[in-house]
Amino acid sequence: MLHFDNKIFFATNNNNKILEAQHVLSDFKVLVEKIDIKKVEIQSDELEEIVLYALKKMGKITYPIVVEDSGLFIEKLNGFPGPYSSYVYKKIGCNGILKLLENENERKAKFVSIVGFRKGRLIKIFRGECYGKISYKMAGKYGFGFDPIFVPENEEKTFAEMSLEEKSLWSHRGKAFKALGNWIRLHKYI
Ligand code: ITT
């Protein structure tokens, strides 16, 4: 039996996302639990579209659920890998991206996170962005994915050199989940 006074269920296979969401939402007294539920992921250039489709396709669920889709958008590569970040990471990793930007000094990039919340038929979308640049080499051991090559604006360190708490202050996911937390608090929604 699911119990959900102040709990939301996060449909993701990525445990790092769970940890980051738990950290941010703990400030709002909201608990986050991973849920293993079928998530349909369409291919689209729009993260919002991917999230909305996944939420709508989950059928009849009564408990509050969250889906998140995120990506790294590199300016010089016309926004690549963007919505294909997960696939690109698996195929070429951080080193592959560094190779694509070899001898390139224009290294601006942004991370985007789209968090979709659904309870019953109500759906809300929250967006978080983090501007920064791609470093010249990998650094740091924390986090996941492209964290070792992403340096947020006004920082010297990569995300992988930051603790989860520090990363969450600046990160795309930190901002999107904070927006969700504020909305839940305002509307007393769970
Ligand atoms: P779920 O779909 O199961 O939630 P996923 O890891 O496949 O997990 P996405 O489809 O949202 O998640 O893929 C986004 C990819 O973008 C992710 O696998 C990383 O490679 C990269 N990424 C997103 N946010 C990141 C972050 O905070 N730090 C580093 N890389 C990130």
Describe this structure as you would to a colleague.
It is built from 5 helices and 7 strands. The chain has helices spanning 15-26, 47-56, 85-100, 164-170, 172-187; strands at residues 7-10, 31-34, 65-74, 80-82, 108-119, 122-134, 150-152. The protein has one domain (7-187): Alpha-Beta Complex (Maf protein), CATH 3.90.950.10. The mean pLDDT is 95. Strands 1, 2, 3, 4, 5, 6 and 7 form a 7-stranded mixed sheet that branches. The protein is of the alpha/beta class.
What's the arrangement of secondary structure elements?
Layout: E1 7-10, H1 15-26, E2 31-34, H2 47-56, E3 65-74, E4 80-82, H3 85-100, E5 108-119, E6 122-134, E7 150-152, H4 164-170, H5 172-187
Parallel strand pairs: 1-2, 1-3
Antiparallel strand pairs: 3-4, 3-5, 5-6, 6-7
Helix pairs in contact: 1-5, 4-5
Bound molecules: inosine 5'-triphosphate (ITT).
Gross CATH architecture? Alpha-Beta Complex
First CA to last CA: what distance? 17 Å
**In percent terms, what proportion of residues is strand?**
25-35%
Kindly identify the CATH topology.
Maf protein
Give me some keywords for this one.
26% strand, globular, 5 helices, alpha/beta, seven-stranded mixed sheet, 190 residues, Maf protein, binds inosine 5'-triphosphate, single chain
Structure summary:
This protein is an alpha/beta fold. The protein has a single domain (7-187), classed as Maf protein (Alpha-Beta Complex).
